[in-house]
């Protein structure tokens, strides 16, 4: 079996141009953190979701744009600068036309009262890791209950979408018009979202609150039969502490009810060792915590494709949830020790068997930072990178991998 890559035509639109001490910050829409298809749509139509908005690390803002006053913020773990906070999360409708992708619509996510959702961080419980976000002048943004960092998207047959976001982490049920109908948050966190127009329900297991900073729920996929919604964390949880995340080699994939997001089962996905990511290792040291899951896609036989990556190297594997026993209920208990993250791949719980479908290490022309993935009607794969709004010069790229049997 052989995969042949083809870069599809695409043109990024201009979002904003901001004059900086050094040069101009040219921003473009970034709408492919996750991809999905919706039943009943015309041929070639698919959907994407963008993340929280343009953001950059303080050290990179100093180096690239001469923003010297931001240098002290480089010492703040996880700090991000958001130069255009009004450009918040959105979904987009695309159409594949021949060898080109066209953008048909952008729908900003909105609360039922019409208020646009923000890409700023929401309030958190005491002791939780949270993302420090700053304006271009270095002032800290105040947390907002309508803040989301959207990353994964799955379309329901009735036209609605489930969208996963990393901050809470939480799941958003979104109408076809971009209006968020409800937010499913971890057990024990509902009060943080009181008083806003988006109804919040405590539906996710409480253990999700242990997500490591900027590594929450990253990927969603609805099974082809429509019976199960799968959600994957980006990385091992920081459970019971940061060391468990940094040394972890498994990611939790949850099976949820597609109507209510009620938890059904948990599966353990084993991550590749850092040395397996050849292009990244050639560029510099790769730590265990650099390996992450960025996307899921469903196949007709009930299996899932999992997009696993660092930066330059992307590995796509096929896994079969139905062939793997789910984890014992005790591993969902935040008080249970040892935790799943401490046990790892050699622990008591079974891990999913995975079959390699694609490695971009064999296709060096393909870009890094892949985050969106679709299985097209002809069985080929459509991949898209996260351009990070062009803030560091990247552009959106779509790659199609046609499957050949030989």
TrEMBL record:
Transmembrane segments: none annotated. It comes from the Bacteria. Coiled coil: none annotated. Residues 33-388 form the Phytase-like domain. This is Esterase-like activity of phytase family protein. It comes from Novosphingobium aquae.
């Amino acid at each position: 079996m052989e995969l042949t890559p083809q870069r599809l035509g695409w043109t990024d639109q201009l979002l904003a141009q901001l004059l900086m001490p050094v040069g101009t910050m040219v921003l473009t829409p970034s709408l492919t953190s996750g991809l999905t298809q919706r039943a009943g749509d015309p041929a070639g139509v698919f959907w994407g979701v963008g993340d929280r908005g343009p953001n950059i690390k303080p050290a990179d803002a100093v180096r690239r744009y001469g923003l010297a006053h931001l240098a002290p913020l480089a010492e703040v773990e996880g700090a991000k600068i958001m130069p255009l906070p009004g450009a918040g999360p959105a979904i987009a409708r695309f159409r594949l036309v021949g060898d080109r992708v066209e953008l048909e619509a952008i729908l900003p996510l909105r609360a039922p009262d019409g208020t646009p959702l923000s890409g700023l961080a929401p309030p958190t419980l005491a002791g939780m890791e949270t993302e420090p976000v700053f304006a271009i002048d270095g002032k800290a943004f105040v947390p907002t209950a309508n803040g989301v960092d959207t990353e994964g998207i799955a379309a329901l047959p009735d036209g609605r979408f489930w969208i996963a976001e990393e901050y809470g982490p939480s799941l958003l049920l979104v109408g076809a018009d971009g209006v968020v109908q409800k937010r499913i948050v971890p057990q024990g966190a509902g009060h943080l979202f009181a008083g806003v127009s988006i109804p919040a329900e405590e539906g996710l297991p409480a253990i999700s609150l242990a997500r490591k900073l900027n590594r929450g729920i990253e990927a969603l996929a609805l099974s082809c039969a429509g019976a199960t919604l799968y959600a994957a964390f980006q990385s091992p949880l920081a459970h019971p502490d940061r060391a468990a995340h940094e040394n972890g080699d498994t990611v939790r994939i949850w099976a949820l009810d597609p109507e209510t997001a009620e938890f059904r089962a948990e599966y353990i996905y084993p991550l590749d060792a850092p040395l397996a990511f050849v292009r990244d290792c050639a560029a510099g040291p790769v730590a265990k915590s650099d390996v992450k899951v960025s996307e899921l896609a469903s196949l007709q036989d009930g299996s899932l494709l999992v997009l696993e990556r660092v930066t330059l190297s992307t590995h796509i594997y096929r896994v079969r949830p139905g062939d793997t026993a789910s984890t014992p209920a005790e591993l969902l208990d935040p008080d249970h020790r040892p935790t799943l993250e401490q046990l790892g791949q050699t622990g008591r719980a079974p891990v999913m068997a995975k079959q390699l479908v694609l490695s971009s290490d064999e296709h060096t022309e393909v870009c890094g930072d892949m985050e969106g993935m679709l299985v097209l009607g002809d069985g080929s794969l459509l991949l898209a990178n996260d351009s990070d709004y062009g803030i560091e010069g990247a552009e959106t790229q779509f790659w199609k991998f046609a499957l050949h049997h030989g």
